[in-house]
Amino acid sequence: MLKLSTLCLANPAVINAQRHVALSAVRCVDQGWRAAKGLPENPNAFGPLTNFPDYTYLDGRPTPLGSNQHKRLLKQQEIAAKIVELSSELDFAKERHERLKKQAQAEKQRIIQNKLKPKGHLLLKKK
Question: Which of 57, 82, 87, 93 could be bridged to 61 by S-S, CB 3.0 to 4.6 A?
Answer without folding.
Answer: 57
